[in-house]
Amino acid sequence: MDTLAQLATGFVHVLTPANLTVLFIGLVLGLLVAVLPGLTLVMGVVLALPFTYAMDVTPAIVLLTAMYVTGTYGGALTAILFRVPGEPIDVPLLWDGYTMARKGAPAKALGWTLLAAFVGGIVSACVMVAFSAPVARIALTLSTPEYFAIIFFGLASVVSLGGGSVTNALISLCLGLLISTVGVDGTYGAERFAFGVPMLIDGIEYLLVMVGAYGIGEVFTRLYVGFDNAGAARAGRVRTELPGLREIGALKMVLARSSLVGVIVGLVPGAGATIASFVAYGTEGQYGKRRRELGTGIPDGIVAPQTAATSSVGGAMIPLLTMGIPGSGATAIILGAFLLHGIQPGPQIFSNPEQAEIAYAVFASMFIGVIGMCLMGYFFIKLLVRVLEFPEAVVSAFVVMFCFIGAFAARNNLSDLYVIAAFGVLGFLFEKFRFPIAPLVLGSILGPLAESTFMTTMISFDNDWTVFFTRPTAGAIMGLALLALGYPLFRHWREHRRISGDAGP
Amino acid sequence: MHFRSRVARAAPYAVLLALAAWFYAIAAQIEYVGPSDRIGPDFWPKAILGAMGLLCAYEIVKSLFFAGPQSVSGMLQNLMEDAAEDEPDGAAAGGARPPDLARLAAGVAVTLGYVAAVEWLGFFVATAAFLALFIVVGGYRRWGVALVAGVAGSLAMVVIFMKIVYVSLPLGAGPFHALSLALLAALGVR
User: Fold this and answer.
1) Which end of chain B is more exposed for a tag (fewer CB within 10 A), N or C?
2) How much is the pLDDT for B96?
3) Predicted ipTM?
């Protein structure tokens, strides 16, 4: 009851003209960013960050969260209509969504996507409301070894779940962690890797790493490959046809399974909407009633990835709000916005009435945002896909500028522009040599927290590192982390054996 | 695999290994005051650098002596590969264009030039020039449109960030400072 009362208060907060305007802007920007290939939802949230500096904390978080949610949906429209996935999340939608559209039912495919995003979003919001406060209560009982174990699990997950080589992901993670050690250390006050440069003594803000590597790095990569300045084909007559109740009933298990997959994947620090989308599609491929027909343009193949992608948002927000651990690029920026407004997310957020109000306003904005997103997707789809007609060179030039302004405005320091330009080049080199960027960024975000929890544990437990394995909760989480790290090795070994077996005598 | 391509594959890891060794040597000299029975501020970076060095060494050895197409890959990659195998017509494949290092170098130069010049030229002039130049470098050949996009975009950003969001953007030096002040006065920004 208390939760529902607080949620009602949250709705009252969001339903003010100022917050609703911000929410609307967030939804529009999120959809636009998601529609444009090359602009990922993380970049979109990064670009919106400077606009939040002058806002109160509630509208700031509402804006970024709205962009995060809609970012999981907008790209589906262009994936289905033009075979242009706006985000990596939308790649699975090419297989059934685009195929259904090509078979002459684009309106139906768009309708299924809309329904899936709606269900995923509402489930996600419900999960956030139901589980955040209980998880925060549990988090209050945890000590530093458990916190370190959770962070270690997050870092291990981003390495094993991501794409590409695991060794490269680990190296990328090490670089991210190393970047986070630059400056004065929090335990002893010793200067590390600063070389006497004042800018480095202050440390390298993870925001600069993120904006540079994700934003400018991506622009450089696409510039190297060549921008698409011709724009996509014109939309023609685009409309959305919602499925009937009987059709929806037939897919209730797909919706339930994919929502669950999305929430669970979202909860894992390091995993995100892209992994949720692929895992849900894979789950349908293994356990779905129509698994043999996947790829031929059936609704199951549209509903599964879209539901999971949108429902992952709620899962990702829970560790952020309850433990202050951002599990994805987007939630890391939302954490940055919280910190810029003087609020440290964590278990205490629900025991502080003022901060709990903000948290419940964010939850309420999720419900309204999901409904708003679907209404916009339904009524303004033709307008949205026209964004593709913008030449990519023009869009990219503005992206770089927004990155610069975002980085500059955070500290009003022109030297930061050199730092993000350098990380932009590093981001390009990472793409070129196939090193994933996500571990680098998460390493720089979680590095200080990982180090402080590790050092505090070592000091409290007389340098006894076994404490991470002997305490039940920490030990269980560390076990999971080691399993996550070991899984790719096991899979590789099994594949190797299979290939050796096939090539055998 | 040819020896030269093996060396090329190992090269980035060799660079990173050298970097890790250099930083490890610096970490070993970190000065601090604290009890001798406790781990110091050098422990964490040394652990990271040690792990990084080992990983790089592993990749160098693998690239030089056991080079093959396989590597231990993450779950997302496996899922994508599995799905691509089942895909009816390779829908995910996009049309590839030849990469252009000169275009990239020009883009990086324009970006670094902007960073170096913004303090002197001020936000409005530097941004208008950057936007127009970057659009042209990006392959968009309608110069007039690029110029208009640059000036209009820069003006819009000045209005949004200085008048609405209250971000204090660089005003420039000398005549550019005067120009920025005149522009802000015309826009009603105090």
Assistant:
1) C
2) 47
3) 0.87
